[in-house]
Each structure stands twice: as C-alpha cells, then as structure tokens.
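Entry 14. Two folds queued back to back today. First construct below, sequence then structure tokens.
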Amino acid sequence: MKKSSGSESRSASALITQRIAELGDWRGKVLSRVRKLIKEADPDVVEEWKWDLPVWSHDGILCTGETYKKAVKLTFAKGASLKDPSRLFNSSLEGNTRRAIDIPEDDELDATAFKALVRAAVAFNSAGPAKPKKKAKA
C-alpha cells in the first residue's frame, strides 16, 4: 500500500481548502464544518484527494465528500458495517458496503452523532479484515 508523503498530504489538504473556497456557498460551509468535525473526531485522519474529491482516511478510507446542487454527500466506504444508532445514514442504504449521509442546504448535522460515526469507522478500519475461521479437523 502506497503511503502519502507529507507534501502529498499537504497538497490534498490544499485542494480540499480550494474546493471549499470555490464552492463559495452553503455547500462550502457544510464541507468545511464536516472537515472540522472529522478532524476533531480523529486527529490522526489523513486528508487525500482522489477521484477529484476530498477523501478522509485512517487505515483505509473513512469517507468521501461529494458536493451536488442540492446536497453535500458523505459516503462512508464501509458504512454498512457500522452501527448508526442516530440514523445519520439516509442515502445509499440498499448496498452491502457503503452508506451515505446527504446533507441538504437547511439541514443541521448532529455533530456528536457524526463524530461517533467517524470514530466507529476508524475503529472498524483499524481492526483490519476479519480472519477466516479454520475448520476443525475431524
């Protein structure tokens, strides 16, 4: 697995900052707030720029930040495996892997619940892949 160098990480952070500034509307404010909450939830998060999108990672992708005309979409790469007691996930619910949170213009994201979800994603990624069980010898 290729690790990002410090300069690549800084340039990804700069690209995210640039995207926020380019939006210049409510979507930029939402993306900026979400970015801040992710960093508060996981100070060791790595900012990346993939697929022309902001990506936050820790032992694998946590989530991406997409911006659309009517919503900011936060797609959690392994969201289907995460507990979501506050029911933040409201999009991409039919898949077996990803889950997303669509945040429309006048919606207020529950900061406490969101940070708990980010921490759950970090814990899931850090736990690593499940080891297959060995069959008992007969």
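Second construct, same run, same settings:
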Amino acid sequence: MIDLKIGRKSIWAAVVLLLTPAFGGQDAPALRTFHVPGVALEFTCRALQPGEVILVKSRNDPTVRRIDVRLRTQKRRFDFDAGTGTALLGIDYGAKPQAYFMEIGVERRDGSRENLFHKLVVEPRDFPQTKLTVAPGMVNPPPEEAERIRRESVLVADLLAAVSPSWLGSGPFVSPLPGFEPFPNFGQKRIYNGRIASTHSGVDISAPAGTAARAANSGRVVLATGLYYSGKTVIIDHGLGVFTYYCHFSKLRVKRGDRVAKGDIIAEVGSTGRSTGPHLHWSVRVLDSRVDPWSLAALPLD
C-alpha cells in the first residue's frame, strides 16, 4: 500500500513509462534500478527523460527513523516507524534535459543526521509532431466564451491542487478502454488549423462513439461536467495528489462526489470539445507533473 504523508507543495508523480502487452501489444522494456550508497532506498525507472518517472521503495533498515527525498520541487518522506513504503518522483514532460541533484536527508535512531546529493542527468527526448484541423471556435474562441474558459481553467487548477491525505486506489492502474489500441502521442507537439501550437499532455485511444469508458483505478470523482475545450470530462482523485483525467465523452455516467471502483463505467466515448473524431483523451496529473498514463498503468502497485 502507499502510506506516505504528502504536503500541499509536495509532488507525487506518476510512474515508470511502459507499454505492457495489455496496452499496445508491445513487450515491456527493461527497467533500470539504482541505489545511493548508504541509503535504504531503491530507485527504479525506464529512463531519465522528460515524461518519465522514478519509483522509489524503502528497504528495511533498523537504524533509520526517517528519510526525506527532494528532487526539484518534489518532496517525499519515508517514515520507517510506519514500515517500508513506496513513493514516486516524476520528471515533467516539460523538464529541460540537464543535470539535477536529488537531495536525500537521513535521520537515524541514534539521533544522527546526514544529507546526501545524488546527480540525475535528464537526457533529451524527442516527442512526435502533427497538424490537426478543428472547428475555428476551438482555435479562436468567440469573445462571449472567454469568461467561461477562464472560469473552467481556474476550477480544474483548484481541483488538481487539492491533495487527498490517503491513497484511494486499489492495485495497479488499468486502461480505461481495454482492448482498444492507443495512439503513441503523449507529449505530441500540435499545430491546430496551421496557427496555434500546443502540447498534448495525455494519450488518445480511438473507439466507436458510445463505447463504455472505465475508471483506471478506484477513487473519488471530483469533476464530471462539460468543459469548453475538453468537452464532457471526468476527473478522478486517487489520493496523494494522483489524478486521472478523461475527456471528449458523449455521455457521463457518474457525478461529482461519487466513489468509483477500478473498472466501473464512468462515461461513453464521444467527440465533444476540441476533437477530430470519437476517442478518449486520457491524461494523468500528479500535482504539477504531467506524465504518460501508460507509465501509471505499468506500475505494480499493491
């Protein structure tokens, strides 16, 4: 189980970027595991690149009371009195490829403390590019929609900034459209109508209109409504700052405040909002870390 405390300014980031055989028909790539000498933590990742994540697990050490880990703005605390634990550190897809220093503070039971620094070199990553044509109002909204768009932006930002104190998920995350092939378009650079550029923060899964979409894990629905750009949208809070975000539905099957179990139907596939055809847009926000949803689905959460 995930049992770490997290503060409002902490970053819980989503997990190792993999495409498993269940997602896209590809074999899972090998993971890298590394340790910091003298620290009872194990770090696992696929790669150190933008959009990737690092899984951190504490190991039994009777001499340790607490370990604090900080990477950029992300902070994680391991309380060894509560037993071993698991944490996630994310590399946002917009992170610059350069060297970062991970700070690790160890407090031992004899009262001694030490601070260590471990260098992580984030390597460049190439993201795909594409050009899309959408309704003109989805590129240059009419003036009368400006206030609505601003209000929705504030609403979503406030929801994603609220950190639930306990883990609400149950086991590993799964595809919201099992059996349907995803597009490899996480982080895609997009040009709409030849003018407006944006970055795709999630992945798209094509499916016929009306196909039932399911919750990727257990949690609490914090938004279920129509938004200007993303159309009919559902956001699920899985606790500790982890959110999954589902867009462009034709019909919603849940409402705000509902508790959902993994696999529950939450909506039906559609093409509302800024969309070029029936599909599901699925993204993951972990506070300010934007990561590939398949990375979250690949993590063996217990």
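Quick look at the second one. The domain at 32-121 is CATH 2.60.40.10 (Immunoglobulin-like). Helices lie at 146-161, 293-298.
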